[in-house]
Write a structure and sequence with these properties.
12 strands; seven-stranded mixed beta sheet; single chain; Ubiquitin-like (UB roll); alpha+beta; Ras association domain-containing protein 1 isoform X2; zinc ion binding
Length: about 260
């Protein structure tokens, strides 16, 4: 399995260095309580479509004829095939990276005297995406692990899930893929159009926030973000009432001023 990336996908921004940019889309609601929205109940299950060896070779040729890049699929004689999938990242929580090489020798002792290595919390840009070269037997869980390894993310892969996004008749459908599904098979069935079907990596939302799944630095990071969000809401309310007060005083002045 090999990896490739778009121009923006290799850009990692530190939460500590770019906190103001983080707040543009990192909120308590979207981070902790966001659930996948479905715009309808109708859903095409690409994974249930099965093909013979001849049909696979024919569909691979049709697929390759529709793309304008070198991201072709290759069909094998045994009915398996290889190709590229593009995964978009829609992560609202920071990801954890191992310590930088220069900091690997820097260790801190906790209160119990244990040796601990520093880790840094990062977040990915909203438009980040990654290409993976996989086979028709590669499962969803393997794809998630490969993506995390590419970014050297040390978070538990169980925190993440792969989703299938499709658009039909102005409706948007989202489906969480099970761990044993094969993303390249979905790509072949749906064709190369990202509008017809795209793959998205998101947090593995279960409806309830499992706080025990996060490390101590991650929880501290959430508290800092909540504090900044609260302070920003307070500033917005103060500005709104100050503007209303000034507008009211100006209207009163116009009424009481002769002429």
């Amino acid at each position: 399995m090999t990896c490739g990336s778009t121009a923006t996908s290799d850009t990692l921004c530190s939460e500590e260095d770019s906190s103001s940019e983080l707040e543009l889309y990192f909120t308590a609601y979207t981070s902790f309580f966001h659930k996948v929205r479905r715009s309808g109940d109708e859903q095409i299950d690409w994974g249930k479509q099965e093909f013979t060896v001849g049909e696979i070779q024919h569909k691979v040729k049709e697929y390759n004829a529709q793309i304008n890049s070198n991201l072709y699929m290759v069909a094998n004689k045994d009915g398996s095939y290889t190709g590229f999938i593009k995964v978009h990242f829609q992560l609202v929580r920071p990801i954890t990276l191992p310590p930088r090489q220069s900091l690997c020798s820097t260790q801190e002792e906790d209160q119990q005297g244990r040796r601990m290595k520093r880790r840094t919390s990062f977040y990915l840009p909203k438009d980040a995406a990654k290409h993976l070269h996989i086979s028709s037997q590669t499962r969803v869980r393997e794809v998630i692990e490969a993506l995390l390894n590419k970014f050297t993310v040390v978070d538990n892969p169980a925190k993440f899930a792969l989703f299938e996004r499709s658009e039909r008749q102005s409706q948007v459908y989202m489906r969480k893929l099970p761990d044993d599904e094969c993303p390249l098979h979905l790509r072949l069935c749906a064709g190369p159009s990202e509008k017809v079907m795209s793959l998205i990596l998101k947090e593995n939302e279960t409806g309830e926030v499992n706080w025990d799944a996060f490390s101590f630095p991650e929880l501290c990071n959430f508290l800092r973000i909540l504090k900044r969000e609260e302070e920003e809401h307070v500033r917005q309310i103060v500005r709104r009432y100050a503007l209303a007060r000034d507008t009211t005083k100006q209207a009163m002045a116009r009424i009481t001023t002769p002429g």
